[in-house]
Amino acid sequence: MEPAKTVNVSELRRMREAGEKIACLTCYDASFALIQDRAGVDMILVGDSLGMVIHGGNTTTPVTVADIAYHSRCVAPHLKRSFLVADLPFLSYATLERALDSSLRLMQEGGAKMVKLEGGREQASIVEYLSVRGVPVCAHLGLRPQFVHKMGAFKVQGRDEAAAEEMLHDAEVLAKAGADLLLLECIPAELGRRITEASPVPVIGIGAGHDVDGQILVLHDILNISPMVTLGRKPRFVKNYMTDGADIETAIRNYVAEVKSGAYPAPEHCFLK
């Protein structure tokens, strides 16, 4: 059997063009990295979500570049196929110089192949600055957890037409600035479709509907062990894959299979206007 291709930016674009859904999960350590890579996860994110599911905090804002670099360093050596993305944490990309220094650490020390940052068109200069210097960038729109104290709560974004048009424009500007991926979180499924159809780059969703190019979930959520899930605050878009999984690897394989087939997300995991 021909070995699976190592996933990179070009392969993600090929998957989009071929209509193959991209299956993504978060990961923070070596043990889960080995399992996810073996189970066929295309893209792995060392997310600042670790501040909540690993550190036990209420938000992601306390997470530092050193935290992300450490967890990326735990994950990276164990990936043979999966593409590794690392979050730029809160205020670590507030200036061009800080963004470059933070990205340098995550890629050199952590072994990441791409960095992710939150924000709309106001981040275009940072995206361009990183991109022309060889740093692949994923731009994160919709619900932005690092902005929770500004937004006031974790809630669906882009519900009204004016907000939807703003997000469409943000996506266009960020892609033109050099973003290689877009990530959409907690937006109406119809808006997810509109952004994906207009985007020249792959679009990954978490609570962004069925019509995006790929899906990402927090690993601990699909295993039903994250603090939010165990405290009864499971987000609408989360599905417990341990229900039908005999073990953790089977659960992850089932998630990948459902993303690839389009079975996930089902309508009950999506937001309407």
Plain-language structure description:
The protein is α/β, with parallel strands linked by helices. It has one domain (9-269): Phosphoenolpyruvate-binding domains (TIM Barrel). 40% of the residues lie in helices and 14% in strands. It has 12 helices and 8 strands. The protein has helices spanning 9-18, 30-39, 50-53, 65-75, 96-108, 124-131, 148-151, 161-177, 189-198, 219-222, 227-230, 248-261, and strands spanning 22-26, 43-46, 83-87, 114-118, 137-142, 181-185, 203-206, 214-217. It has an 8-stranded parallel β-barrel, surrounded by 7 helices. The mean pLDDT is 95.
Q: Order of helices and strands, N to C? A: HEHEHHEHEHEHHEHEEHHH
Secondary structure: helix percent: 25-40%
CATH superfamily: Phosphoenolpyruvate-binding domains
CATH fold group: TIM Barrel
CATH hierarchy: architecture: Alpha-Beta Barrel
How many alpha or pi helices? 12
Largest sheet: 8 strands, parallel, barrel
The outline comes out as: globular
Return the structural class.
alpha/beta
Key traits:
273 residues, TIM Barrel, 14% strand, alpha/beta, globular, 12 helices, eight-stranded parallel β-barrel
How would you summarize what this structure contains?
The chain is α/β, with parallel strands linked by helices and 273 residues long.
Blueprint (SSEs and pairs):
Layout: H1 9-18, E1 22-26, H2 30-39, E2 43-46, H3 50-53, H4 65-75, E3 83-87, H5 96-108, E4 114-118, H6 124-131, E5 137-142, H7 148-151, H8 161-177, E6 181-185, H9 189-198, E7 203-206, E8 214-217, H10 219-222, H11 227-230, H12 248-261
Parallel strand pairs: 1-2, 1-8, 2-3, 3-4, 4-5, 5-6, 6-7, 7-8
Helix pairs in contact: 2-12, 4-5, 5-6, 6-8, 8-9
